[in-house]
Amino acid sequence: MRHRAVGVPRSALAIAALATVAMALPVVALVARVEVTRLPELLTSESALTALRLSLLTTSVATVVCVLVGVPLALVLARCSFPGKAFVRGLVLLPLVLPPVVAGVAVLSAIGRRGLLGATLEAWGIELAFSTAAVIIAQVFVAMPFLVLSVEGALRADDGGYDIAAATLGASPAQVFWRVTVPRIAPALAAGTVLVFARALGEFGATITAAGSLPGVTRTLPLEIYLQRETDPEGAVALSALLLVVAVVVIVLTYGRQRSGPWRRRPGPDVAAVEWDAPSPGSPLSVRAAVPERGLDVELDVAAGETVAVVGPNGAGKSTLLSVIAGVVQAPGCAVTVDGRPVEEAPPHRRGVALLTQRGHLFGHLTASHNVAFALRGSGRRARARGVLRRLGAEQWRSRYPDQLSGGQAARVAVARALAAQPRVVLLDEPLAALDVESAVDVRAALAELLGPCTVVLVTHDAADLAALADRVVVLEEGRVVDEGPVDAVLTRGRTTYVTHLGSSGSY
Ligand SMILES: Nc1ncnc2c1ncn2[C@@H]1O[C@H](COP(=O)(O)OP(=O)(O)OP(=O)(O)O)[C@@H](O)[C@H]1O
């Protein structure tokens, strides 16, 4: 099956064709000028091979440094807020707009003998200026923004919901980074790495300014080409063609891999299911959520095994209340007790509280089975995951990736994953809102059967959820509790317009 793309205007096609010709012209002209008969002799000259080796070495080291430093930098820029963040981002991206020669002068001003760090480095016996290390530093300086831009963009593409889902399933920040974040940003990381490699390989101005042109030490291939233009133009053309080939090989290798789609963990061999009886019994929950910035001031107690539905108009503070319980939002006036123990200082992965939102946030690189296994600890996780999926009526989709599931199927898998973590408290934020009526009925029935022993806080706008799932309902308006009690009583007395409408909706 193929998806058919929406057509593009003919004018765009014509412009794209012209642009392609214009971009190809210099490359074709370069290749046409190469003297094929002299090519072996020109490319295997001592100076050419030395420059090529040096270019590949410095470019590879610079690329590794950019990845090791750039990914954490992008992560901090995308996920943290701190004073001066805009300034830091501007500083990191500055080399993109600096003329390379200025970048070279800047690097030399930092590491040169009379530079900012020169005396300190000299005292330690380190001389960086006009060394191979200076070439690498110049390459890192000019290429780093490409990596940071690619990775930060990918990280910003979601609101952190996948990370939050992983944390509330018990994953530590390091596990979230390696098992969720890195696979998700893998395509952007690969693209950024190619750009860094290409930029570093072609670097000229900053290198010659900061490192000079010492054969075998700092004379990379672009510098060798430039110098050869004076004495041997044919040799310069041949070396340019060589640089072109190296760049094309890198791009084809990386983008060729990307064409096969985002990175996915293989389903692995099938395993027999280990039966899963039911989620473990929940714990009592007590919460005081005071978040003045969001106008929320609520106290809520939920008994062990009780399902409390929180209802109220948009912006009433329902999701914020769940975020406080899960530990995603922290404020000085908040206190959360699970099983009698205060957890407000504990990070989300140590609270035993699973949060399931309407988007589900299934990890796209994992099959349904691996998604559920993510929430499990100990041996035989795949077999136990299959048992949980069977209990939710989702076993048949265990080898599918999330983008191969319908909304209803994905919701069942997401519920399976949340319950598999055996949380002490389950938070459900409109878990059925994205489903069609039929799927919602199915998943609601599965929830009604399974949530029995769990302690649940359920946010919903649907009266059918109240009828099927809730023991008690709490009504929020403008961040305050305006009514609470058994579902029938609250809906019958209809203290607010919202509740009156909810009670008279057909589904109750
Ligand atoms: N990330 C945020 N940063 C700042 N304010 C926020 C943020 N998220 C929500 N708010 C504000 O907090 C208040 C409560 O929002 P919240 O999302 O908790 O309401 P809600 O009852 O869940 O609404 P809905 O039914 O639309 O989901 C609103 O005034 C909202 O504008």
TrEMBL record:
One of its GO terms (molecular function) is ATP binding. Residues 280-503 form the ABC transporter domain. Residues 52-255 form the ABC transmembrane type-1 domain. InterPro entries: AAA+_ATPase, ABC_transporter-like_ATP-bd, ABC_transporter-like_CS, MetI-like, MetI-like_sf, ModB_ABC, NifC_ABC_porter, P-loop_NTPase. The keyword Zinc does not apply. The keyword Membrane applies. PROSITE patterns: ABC_TM1, ABC_TRANSPORTER_1, ABC_TRANSPORTER_2. Pfam families: ABC_tran (PF00005), BPD_transp_1 (PF00528). It comes from the Bacteria. It is found in: Cell membrane. The chain crosses the membrane at residues 12-34, 54-78, 90-111, 123-149, 235-256. Keywords: ATP-binding, Cell membrane, Membrane, Molybdenum, Nucleotide-binding, Transmembrane, Transmembrane helix, Transport. NCBIfam families: Mo_ABC_porter, modB_ABC. Belongs to the binding-protein-dependent transport system permease family. CysTW subfamily. This is Molybdate ABC transporter permease subunit. It comes from Aeromicrobium camelliae. The gene is modB.
